[in-house]
Specification:
alpha/beta; Nucleotidyltransferase, domain 5; 3 domains; seven-stranded mixed beta sheet; 25 strands; about 25% strand
């Protein structure tokens, strides 16, 4: 029976169970989408259904593979309130829920001033419940009895770790991911944990992703057919898992990882923690790497922006997105030269680099709110031309990426590494290379980077080593992207686009 490592890779859309060999080759994968479970009108994570599926898949794999270790990686901004044994006692609400402007004001009245909190916790003010501390505050207000009954407030990867082992824990990449819960100067839980009254409900100490949490709970082992000696690691935040193989194999070369999907996450390993004065109040923050080092980060909902607009464009043609004719280089040159057509962020207001900007299109001096376009009330004529519309959309996503890259502190000669969904968008990548003539833009071939990084933590735990020692198993091919157009052709269009924002 082949030895293997299992990864529970839990994204907002896709939930996956991925198997790797003990030389980090992917050998099996199953995935599933779980619709939200509605609770009191809120979208919540269907934890019970997800757990049932995970255990079922592990049982299926156990017949063919000897699974020696399990790692968990999850999306951010999610904590679960549980009882002493790890059973949820309150709904696990989607971080996309937007309570109200007054809610955010109440949170900061309790937690502290926005810029001061950003300086100490590395966390900016996001909309909805994207700051985990706001999610906890929302539960405290909306479900006071359930919240009061919670023994543990568990970060999402560690919730799943507790379901597997029965042991509570907390881990640095997740606690340090725009939660407001980590104080970078004290290297401990922040004053916000005290303000919410949960310090004693957050597990301590904060440990590392490849630390061993424990072995499988006997009931889980019996249910899945796995050995009760199967190791379970602490778990890791998904973006940090994607970054881990690049950190382990970079050889010290300066780079920014452009990890693209529903969220575009731009991550820049830097030498020290701290903001420049003009960065406070901007949507830039610090992640904490698996080695506890600072990762200057900027995010925006690039995939969601793209999918929303491309579907609108396709609907106007009565086609699917795949059936649309593709723009040519000349279409991009024309759009950039005319400076008449624009698509502006943000699909989810306050989620990215342009807080205060509402999603809309602009054409020939007229602005069209996204909601009007979706209802068919007012549609800019350029959106009915599929080549022009797609060129405008790709340019918009590139300009949003450009702002995010600069906010991570990108320097000349640093590599830009694009992975994820936008790897397949040739025009996006060639435009991005055009925007950064002083940087090499590469596409990486690392498939399922999040799962791979999480598997590294499990293998490191199994071998009792630092993940750096696994660099011989990391083979990342990089394809250099040639620019589409001279960088100067973007300048005037960029100025007009930013003036509208």
């Amino acid at each position: 029976m082949t030895d293997a490592i299992a990864v529970l890779d839990i994204g907002m859309t896709n939930k996956k169970v991925v198997l790797y060999s003990t030389e980090l080759s992917m050998i099996a994968e199953k995935r599933r989408v779980f619709p939200p479970l509605m609770c009191d009108g809120f979208e919540t994570h269907n934890l019970a259904a997800m757990e049932e599926w995970f255990l079922q898949v592990l049982q299926e794999y156990s017949r063919e593979f000897a699974i020696k270790a399990i790692a968990v990686s999850t999306h951010g901004a999610t904590f679960v309130c549980t009882d002493e044994r790890g059973n949820p006692v309150a709904p696990c609400i989607y971080y996309t829920h937007e309570p109200s402007r007054e809610f955010h004001d109440r949170f900061f009245s309790l937690a502290g001033e926005r810029k001061a909190l950003q300086a100490t916790t590395g966390t900016p003010d996001f909309s909805a419940l994207i700051n985990s501390a706001k999610g906890i505050f929302f539960l405290r207000e909306r479900y006071p009895e359930e919240f009061a009954s919670a023994r543990w407030v568990l970060p999402y990867p560690q919730y799943w770790g507790m379901r597997l082992t029965g042991k509570p824990s907390a881990e640095g990449t997740y606690i340090g991911c725009h939660t407001f819960f980590f104080d970078w100067r004290r290297e401990d839980y922040s004053s916000v944990a005290d303000a919410l009254g949960i310090r004693d409900r957050l597990p301590s100490p904060i440990r590392q992703a490849w630390d061993v949490l424990g072995t499988l709970d006997p009931e889980i082992a019996a249910r899945t057919g796995l050995s009760p000696r199967t190791l379970v690691t602490l778990g890791i935040h998904d973006s940090n898992a994607s970054l881990l193989p690049h950190l382990a194999s970079s050889g010290g070369r300066d780079f920014v990882l452009n990890s693209t999907g529903t969220w575009c996450v731009l991550m820049h390993p830097v030498g020290r923690y701290g903001f420049e004065p003009d960065e406070l109040g901007k949507v830039v923050f610090f992640n904490r790497s698996a080695w506890n080092t600072p990762i200057k980060t900027a995010i925006f909902l690039g995939g969601k922006e793209y999918e929303t607009w491309i579907q609108l464009i396709a609907n106007l043609q009565v086609r699917t997105p795949r059936e649309l004719p593709q723009p040519e280089r000349e279409d991009y040159g024309r759009v950039l030269g005319e400076k008449k057509y624009f698509i502006l962020p943000e699909i989810v207001p306050g989620s990215g680099q342009f807080p205060g900007s509402a999603a809309r299109a602009a054409g020939d001096g007229t602005q069209y709110p996204l909601s009007d376009i979706e209802r068919g009330e007012k549609v800019p004529p350029f959106l009915r031309d599929p080549k022009t519309a797609q060129a405008v959309l790709n340019i918009s996503i590139v300009l949003q990426t450009e702002v995010a890259l600069r906010r991570t502190g990108l320097k000349k000669n640093a590599d830009i590494l694009t992975e994820g969904g936008f790897r397949n968008n040739t025009d996006y990548n060639r435009l991005l290379a055009s925007a950064f003539p002083d940087n090499a833009v590469y596409l990486t071939d690392l498939q399922e980077a999040t799962s791979f990084g999480a598997a590294m933590t499990a293998l490191a735990a199994l071998k009792g080593i630092d993940p750096l020692e696994l660099s011989r198993f990391i083979h990342i091919e990089k394809a250099l992207v040639p620019p589409m157009l001279p960088s100067t052709i973007l300048d005037a269009y960029r100025d007009a686009w930013q003036a509208l924002i």
